[in-house]
Amino acid sequence: MKLPEPMKNKLVGLIILLCLGLLAGCAVNPVTGQQEIVLMSEPQELAMGARYYPQTTQINNGLVPHDQGLQNYVSRVGHKLARVSHRPDIPWEFNVVNSDQVNAFALPGGKISLTRGLIANMRSEDEMASVLAHEIGHVTARHSVAQYTRGVFVSMAVAGAGLALSNSDYKEVGAMAAGVAGSLLMLSYSRDQERQADQLGYEYMVNAGYNPVGQVKTFEMFQRLHKSEPGFIAAMLSSHPLTDERVQTARDRVAATSRAIAGQPLQTAGFQKALAAQKQRRPAYEAEAKGDALAKKKNYAAAAKEYRRAADLYGGDGLFATKLALAQYQMKNYDQAMRASAEGAEASPGVYLPNFVAGAIHYKMKDFNKAKDYLGRADKLLPDQPRNQLLLAASYEQSGQRRTAASYYRRLVNQAPKSQEAAAAAYRLRQMGYKR
Question: To pair with 190 at 20 to 30 A between CA atoms, which of 68, 83, 106, 403?
Answer without folding.
Answer: 83
